[in-house]
Amino acid sequence: MTTNKSKLPIGTIAKHATVLLLVILWTLPTLGLLVSSVRDKDQLTVSGWWTALSASDRNEVYRTPQGAAQQEIDGVFVIESSMIADGSRRIVNAWGLGPRNIDEFQAGETAILEDGSRMTVTQDARMRWESDEPFTHTRGIRVFYMAEVPPTFTLQNYAEVLSSEGIGRAFINTMTVTLPATFIPILIAAFAAYALAWMNFPGRLWILAGIVGLLVVPLQISLIPVLRMYTNLAGTFGWEAKSYAGVWLAHTGFGLPLAVYLLRNYMAGLPKEVMESARMDGASHFDVFRTIVLPLSIPALASFAIFQFLWVWNDLLVALVFLGQGEGKTVMTAQLIELLGSRGDNWEILTSGAFITMIVPLVVFISMQRYFVRGLLAGSVK
Amino acid sequence: MLQQISLAAFTIALAIGLSVLFFYGCNILLDRLMSSDSLTDDMARQRQDNRRESIRPWIFVGPAVLILLVYLVYPVFASLWYSLLDRNADNFVGLSNYIWAFGNRTFQIAIRNNIMWLIIVPTMSTAFGLLIAYMTDRLWWGQVARTLVFLPMAISFVGASVIWKFVYDFRGVGEEQIGLLNALVVALGGEPQAWIAIPFWNNLLLMVILIWIQTGFAMVILGAAIRGVPEDTIEASIMEGANNYQIFFKIVIPQIFGTIVVVWTTITILVLKVFDIVFAMTNGQWNSNVLANFMYDQLFRAGDIGRGSAVAIVIMLAVTPVMIYNIRRARQEHQ
Question: Which CATH class is domain A158-380?
Fold first, then answer.
C-alpha cells in the first residue's frame, strides 16, 4: 500500500502530461488555421502564426512634408507630423537619416542636421523638425526608422473570400444540397424502418439482410452507372443532367442503408404493448407510425440527422460528380479545392475559406454532440 | 444575393414538402381507394381490410427499396458489365481493362499505397483512440480533452487537407518558415523540406490527416466500451497487485476486444474509399495515388468508362469479405 502511494503522484503527473500533449497535438493544426485567418495578410506571409501575438519588427521609410507645411511658433519654424498615415500603431525604437545608419538615433533623441535644423522622432512615431530659418525645401527628406508593429487582427480576409472568391455563393449552394439531402433519406428511412420492425410482409428478412450488405458498398461503384443514367434521362426528357434533385437522390441512396439500419434497430426496441393497443383501437399502421412511433424515435432520428448532415455538408466526391464545378452550383468543398489550385499560396484566402466551410458543422457538432455519440454507438457496436 | 437565398429556400422547401406529401398522399389514397366502410358484409369488410393492409407495407418500404435498387444494387452489376467494355462502353473487350490496370505503374503504386493506408490508418487511429479513451476515463478534465480530440470528426476532408497543407507548408531555405512542421525542423537545426513532394514518405503525411480525424471516432466507441468493463474485475486485479499496464493489457483489452475489432473494421472500410484527402493534397502526384483517386482520374480526366469501372470493381472486391461477414451475422441475429 505504501509503495503504491509513493508511486501515485509521478504516475498521475505523467498521465496528465501525456493527455495534455495529445490534446495539444490534436488542437494545434486547427488553431493555426483559425489564427491565420484573422491575421493581416502581409504579416501572414512573413511570420509563423504562432508569432501572431508578438509584435513584429519592421524597417520603414517616411518622407517629411514640404517646407510649406511649417508653422512659426515664437520665432522658431516648426514642421510637425505623424509618420504613420493609416492610423495603425507603431512603436519606434531607433531612427536615422540614411538607410545604412537607420539606428543612428534612439527614439526621443534630437538630431542636428547639416543646415543647423533640429529633428526629433518620438516613440509614438511623431516627427518634429525645428529651424531658426524658414524652411524652403520643396521635396521632403527621408527618415528611416525601425518600428515594432503590434499584432493586428482583421476580418478583411473573410470579407474578401465571401465576396470575390465565390465562397459566399458556394455557401448557399451547399445549404441547398444539404438540407433536402438530410431530410429526404430520414423520411424514407423512417417509413421503411417502421415496416421492417413492425409490419409483417413477405421478403422482410431478405430486405433487411440486403440493407446490412449495402452498408459497406463503396459509393465509387455507383458513380459511373448513375451518372450515365442521369445523362440518358436528361437526353430523353430534356432535363439538366447536373441538377440539385439528382444530388439529393444520390445522397439519399448512399445514406439510406445506414439510416434504415439505425432506425430499424431503434424502433424494434420500442415497447410492443403501446403499438398493439393502438392497433386494437383501430388505428392504422400509418396512424401508429405518425402519432406514436415517430415522436418516440426522435433521439434516433436526431442521431442520424447529424450524421447525414455532416456527411453531405462535408462531401466532395458526390457533389463533384453529380453537380460539377462552375455553372453556379459549385458547393463549398469543391470551391475550396478550386482555390487550393488557383490561390495555392494565398494562405489568407485558404484559411478563411476553409474556416467558413467548417463553421456550420462545428456548431452543429458541438451543440448536438450527445446525439452524435449515441448514433455512433448504435451504428457500430452491434 | 437575396435572390439566390430566396431561390435556395424555395427549392429546399419544395423538395421537403413534396417528399412529405408523397407519403401522406399514398397512405390517404390507399385508405380512400380500398375503404371498407361502404361494405355491409362482415366477411367482405374483413377481406377488403386484409387486402388493404397487405399493400400498405409496400408504401412504407417501397421508396427505400426502389432507391436502394437504383442507386446501389443496379450500379454493382452495371459497373461489373462496364468494366468489360471499352472506353465509351460500346464494345466488349473482355478482361483487358483489368489486364491493363494491373500492368499500369500508377495502379500498382495506388495498390501499394492503399495497402499501406489499410495497415497504418486503422491501426494508429484505434491505438490512439484507445490510449486517449483509457487515459481520460477518470480525468477531471477528461470530457474537455475528449471533445477537443473528437472535434476533427466534424471537419470535412477538404477542410482538414487545407489545415494540414498549412502545417506542411514549405518556404525556401533561409526564408522564414510559416508551416509548423518546417519551423520545428529549422528550430531543431534541420533543413526545411517540401514534405508532400517526397515520394513514399508523403503517403505517411497524408495518412496523418485521416488518423487525426478518425482517432476521435475510435476514442468515443472504445471509451464507451471501457466504461462498460465491470468494476470488480479491475478491483480484483488491483488487490492482487497488478500495475496500470497489467490492468490495461490483461484486464481491460481482452474485455473490449470485440469492440476494438468493430472499430478497426469500420475505419478500414472508410480508408478504402478515401479520396478527398489525396485529391486535395497531391492529386496523386509524387507517387501518392490511391485507388479511389485513380478511378476518378480514369473516369473524369481520361474519360474512360471501362477502365474507371474496372478500378471501382477492384475497390468493391476489397470490401466484399466484410459485407458477407456482416450479412451472415445479421441473418443469425434475426433468425
Answer: mainly alpha
> Which chain A residues are Cβ-neighbours of B151 within 8 angstroms?
26-27, 30, 362, 365-366
How near does any CA of chain B get to the CA of A60, in Å? 19
CB-CB under 8 Å, B147 with A347: no
Where are the CATH 2.60.40 domain residues in chain A? Answer: 56-149
Across B7-12, average pLDDT: 85
Cell digits of residue A312: 453531405
- How close A105 gets to chain B, by Cα (Å)? 28
* pLDDT exceeds 80 at position B300: yes
Q: pLDDT tens digits, residue range A102-131?
A: 888 888 888 888 888 888 888 888 888 888
When CB atoms are compared, the residue of A209, A253, A381 closest to B71 is A253
Task: Indicate whether A8 pLDDT > 70.
Answer: no
pTM of this prediction? 0.85
Give residue-wise pLDDT tens across range A250-288. Answer: 999 999 998 998 899 888 888 888 888 888 887 888 888
Query: Can you tell me the ipTM of this complex?
Result: 0.88
Give yes or no for B134 touching A (CB within 8 A): no
Residue A149's nearest CA partner among A210, A240, A88, A85 is A88
Asked if B26 has any chain A CB less than 8 Å from its own CB, the reply is no
Domain with CATH 1.10.3720.10 in chain A: 158-380
Q: Chain A 250-309, CB below 8 Å of chain B: which residues?
A: 250, 252-254, 256-257, 260, 284-286, 289
Q: Which of B256-294 are b and which e, b meaning 16 or more Cβ less than 10 Å from the residue's Cβ?
A: beebbebbebbbbbbbbbbbbbbbbbbbbebbbbbbbbb
Residues B103-334, CATH architecture: Orthogonal Bundle (1.10)
Question: How many angstroms separate the CA of residue B183 from the nearest CA in chain A?
Answer: 8
Can you list the positions of beta strands (E) in chain A? Answer: 56-63, 71-73, 76-82, 91-96, 105-106, 110-112, 118-121, 126-131, 142-149
Q: Is A211 on the interface with B (CB under 8 A)?
A: yes
The CA distance from A255 to the nearest CA of chain B, in Å, is 10
Domain residue ranges in chain B: 2-82, 103-334
From residue A345, give the alpha-carbon distance in Å to each of A34, A52, A348, A351, A355. 17, 19, 9, 11, 17
Is the per-residue pLDDT at A1 higher than 60? no
A 17-56 residues inside an 8 A Cβ radius of B:
18-20, 22-23, 26-30, 32-33, 36, 44-50
pLDDT band at B3 (very low <50, low <70, confident <90, very high): confident
Give tens-digit pLDDT for B210-253: 999 999 999 988 988 888 888 888 888 888 888 878 888 888 88
Residue from the list A176, A191, A228 with its beta carbon closest to the beta carbon of B8: A176
DSSP A60: E
Question: How many Cβ atoms are within 10 Å of B306's Cβ, its own excluded?
Answer: 24
**The architecture CATH gives domain A56-149:** Sandwich (2.60)
Q: Looking at this protein, which amino acid is placed at residue A332?
A: M
Contact pairs from chain A to chain B, CB under 8 Å: 329
Each residue's pLDDT tens digit, A335-368: 988 888 888 778 888 899 899 999 999 998 888 8
